[in-house]
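User: My notes are a mess, but here's the protein and zinc ion's SMILES. Can you give me a structure?
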Amino acid sequence: MPELPETTVISEDVLSLAGGREVLRAAVFRPDVTNVEPEEFTRRLVGLTLRGTGRRGKIIVLDFGGVVGLIHLVISGRVLRLPEWTEPDLTNTAVLEFEGGVTLSFAKLWLGYFHLYEPGTVDGHPLISRLGPEPFSEDFTQEYLTKALSRKANIKGLLLDQSVVAGLGNIYVDEVLFTAGVHPTRKANTLTPDEVLKVHAASRDILRRAIELRGTTFDSYHDAFGETGKYQHQLLVFDREGEPCPVCGTEIVKLRVAGRGTHVCPHCQPV
Ligand SMILES: [Zn+2]
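Assistant: No problem, the inputs look usable. Here's the predicted complex:
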């Protein structure tokens, strides 16, 4: 699933491809992919210009001035450039043609969506309204994180919880906890102040580097230019079960924590 870095990259790609361009055609394949009737999806977007793009948690935000598009790729979704206008189908779930020959497919939104919201109402979106602070925002302070982690739940589950911090997912949480030397099953309220500080710093550091390397590709993720990310080559523990820990050489093990496959160095991350 695209996490914060991948969503950031795609959002910036869409801006570079279609920013400042008017929508000439827009259509959606299935009514359940959006929150308006398919005819309305077309009517509300055509004639508008893409003014900017952004991201909230793992949701791509497209600012069309009078309308805001909210796109959640969930697991399989992708944004890709098509050579020409194509009617939406099972693969190309929603298609937008912009002036200047730029056609974008919001593809494989099988579990995701392309919602249209009025400007100023985005915070009321059911997913966005529950988001915690963005990792790069001023609100994501060490004090905030200390308070958010003062609970008995395991640390991995809390970091995956989008209401604690927005945008982290399974891959980056494993990397953050390894870097911080914290075992994912630890109760969050047992972390020392120094460990909380390390989790805070590692979150920002790892996400920033992952954005620079244009995200992590395992299977489906590609940027809007069809290229894979490069951060998968930098991963220290994720998907490295059975390999030696890059720090101490101990074999990396895979556990199930918070319902997710979880990668741990038993030596660097003591229980
Ligand atoms: Zn180790």
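The beta strands are 23-28, 52-56, 59-63, 68-72, 78-82, 94-98, 102-107, 113-117, 253-257, 260-264.
User: Great, I'll file this with my notes.
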